[in-house]
Design a protein that fits this description.
Blueprint (H helix, E strand, L loop, with lengths): L1 E8 L4 H12 L4 E7 L4 E6 L5 H10 L3 E6 L4
Antiparallel strand pairs: 1-3, 1-4, 2-3
Length: 74
């Protein structure tokens, strides 16, 4: 399982969080996903890992701006 953290611009309410989470749940490889309003981030556990393109698409489909990926230290 690989944990990836992506930054999301414009996610500022629970409805926003739900929209982002639902987009990531659409990928078969995603085992868990959570979003954090305060950090403007989404944490995705998947196997195999998502590509940056897949993450960017999910965030943009939810109506937000992909602002990059953070290393999880692994």
């Amino acid at each position: 399982m690989v944990e990836s953290v992506y930054q999301v611009k414009g996610m500022d309410c629970q409805h926003c969080v739900n929209a982002v989470v639902e987009e990531f749940k659409g990928f078969d490889s995603v085992r868990s996903v959570s979003a954090d309003i305060l950090n403007s981030s989404v944490v995705v556990d998947s196997e195999p890992p998502l590509t940056l393109g897949q993450a960017k698409t999910a965030i943009e489909e939810a109506g937000f701006v992909f602002a990059g990926e953070h290393s999880n230290g692994q």
